[in-house]
Amino acid sequence: MSDFRVQHASWSSRIGTTIVVLAFVAFAAAPWWADRANLRLLSEIFAYVALASLWNLLAGYAGLVSVGQQAYVGLGAYVLFGLAMLAGVHPLAAIPLAGIAAAIVALPVAALIFRLRGHYFAIGTWVVAEVFRLLAAQTTALDGGSGTSLPAAVVVSIASSRQMREFTIYWIALAQVAVVLFAIVWLLRSRYGLALTAIRDNELGARSNGVDVARIKYCVYVAVAFGTAMVGALIFLQKIRISPDTAFSVNDWTAFVIFITVIGGIGRIEGPIIGTVIFFLLRQTLADLGAIYLLILGVVAIAVMLKAPKGLWGLIADRYGWQVFPLERRLVINKR
Amino acid sequence: MEWLNTILQGILLGGLYAMFAAGLSLIFGVMRLVNIAHGDLIVLAAYVALVATQTLGINPIVSLIVVVPVMAAIGYVLQRGLLNRTLGDDLLPPLLVTFGLSVIIQNGLLEIFTADSVKLNAGAVEIQSIAVGGGLALGVLPLIQFALAIAVIGGLQWLFYRTALGRAFRATSDDQSVAQLMGLNNAHVFGLAMALSLAIVAVAGVLLAVRANFDPSMGPARLIFGFEAVIIGGLGSMWGTLAGGIIIGVAQAIGAQIDPGWNLLAGHIAFLIVLAIRPQGLFPKVHG
């Protein structure tokens, strides 16, 4: 029986993984070669890669198209602010706690909105985000609708010097995106990844082959909420200021994330990375246009969805068969 | 007495929400498409009415003569030119394309009309009311709004079950390929369904614009109210959407009476409660 094995890596994934690892080493050393503005930009890029990768896992693989992930970005951020300001928890320790809190909240939320089929699930996720936003606006302990700022004492507790604080937050942002990408690669290589890929390609087929589709979707939803909340917590720890409208912004945390993933390539782990690079290149050149910029982004995303539904990376992968991460499954006969 | 008044106002507001819901429900019924841009199209209709009243110098209610055909035409073109290409077994394309459309409409309106909120002035009718005894009075405008909602839903019901077009809608809803075999042009039928949906959106948009201030960012909330009314009423039931709209309207009115901050929250909570205890809605008809 054991005269064959499954091989994940290919020549392109060896090159790709090497480049990714080298990039991470270079980014880890960024505090020594980049200035403050670029460090900030890089941590923002990392946050979007992480958010888009998580949304991609949810929508691209598990088929759960959510337009309400801002619910968990905002929830994570608010839990961090609440713990740090009201309970005196160290802000860095509050980041994982924000993730755990979001996962606990996601358990009953998922049970409720999973009752909505297909398309209506999407709008259901939006209702949840609205409810969270309105509840945050009613939280008088954190100054309700007008929002609040982290007190200086909390900010100083991250690190005493401003430079060290910026470095710390930058490294955590880098670590977050590394962990998210690594976890997704690991998940997709496991038997659950096989099930998820099967769901992505054909849900009915997956079910008839014995995949417990409902349970896997439930687990993915909760896990994505966990990750999204931690990313959200760090984003607002860096911003220092929070308000319901920024923390639960559908444009910032869902529209951008969806456009990034669709343009880069939905249902492929490389998609969100490519998409984020394109998104920030566009933003650096078109940011002055204001509302027009979002409009252009919407048009591009619709055009990609209609003309190249697998996104930019989908085109590349179909044409050349490349993969950056060792994910494919190829049977190799063992030589005796 | 104050509570009775609150509930009455909520019921009348529910008529407006039922109209948001009717267009959404129609589209889903005929082609299984959930239009995420629905709320933004309502706001677009309000701005079309704004331009119509300003350039033609007519009353907003009269402007319906212009706004309804304009929105219906937009609907037909949108469906034939864009949305028909997204239909199929895959859920992603219609959701993402209508989501993109929502962002485009919102930011387009923002660019043209700025974020300042505006309101349409319908004249004396806005402040008139009819005393119904016991110290209660009902505004003429909310009553018109409610009557229009009933007329729209009754008209849809009649259209669906008494006309050839309704038969075509029901046929494509039941089985698209058989409908096509029977000589229906599905692409055209879908275009007509979207045109009809946006004609209803036009009425809802004008009423929204007369009722209160509006700005480009308020579309998504309208989508959500309409969606909640559809789910509470039960998929595919037209009169159910009216009941759903009324429940949302009354819940919001009661919430606002308790604490202004609970206005919208109370409506969402009513929806979540129905979802928890009766996920198929109050009057379910089709299984989506």
Which consecutive residue ranges of chain B, at least 5 long each, have pLDDT under 50?
none
Pair of chains with the largest interface and how many residues each contributes: A-B, 44 and 43 residues
User: The biggest beta sheet of chain B, please?
Assistant: 2 strands, antiparallel
CA-based gyration radius of chain A: 20 Å
Record field, number of beta strands of chain B? 2
Please identify, by name, the CATH architecture of chain B. Orthogonal Bundle
Indicate the percent of residues in helices of chain B.
Answer: over 70%
Terminal residue distance of chain B: 41 Å
Helix and strand content put the structural class of chain A at: mainly alpha
So what's the oligomer here? heterodimer
Helix share, percent of chain A = over 70%
- Structurally, the number of domains of chain B stands at 1
How far do the termini of chain A sit from each other? Answer: 13 Å
Uncertain runs of chain A: none
What's the mean pLDDT score of chain B? Answer: 90
Strand share of the residues of chain B?
under 5%
Major beta sheet summary of chain A: 2 strands, antiparallel
The SSE string of chain B, one letter per element, is HHHHEEHHHHHHH
What portion of residues of chain A belong to β-strands?
under 5%
Keywords:
heterodimer; A: 336 residues; mainly alpha; two-stranded antiparallel ribbon; 16 helices; 4 strands; 74% helix; 4% strand; globular; B: 288 residues; ABC transporter involved in vitamin B12 uptake, BtuC; 11 helices; 2 strands; 72% helix
Protein architecture, described:
The complex is a heterodimer of chains A (336) and B (288). Chain A is built from 16 helices and 4 strands. With 336 residues, chain A is mainly alpha-helical. Chain A has a domain at 34-249. In chain A, α8 (162-189) runs antiparallel to α11. Chain A is globular and about 65 Å long. The model of chain A has no long low-confidence stretch (mean pLDDT 90). Chain B has 288 residues and is mostly helical. Chain B is built from 11 helices and 2 strands. Chain B has helices spanning 2-31, 38-56, 64-81, 92-113, 140-162, 164-174, 176-181, 186-211, 219-233, 238-258, 263-277; strands spanning 129-133, 136-139. In chain B, β1 and β2 form a beta hairpin. At the A-B interface, α6, α13 and α15 of A face α4, α9 and α11 of B.
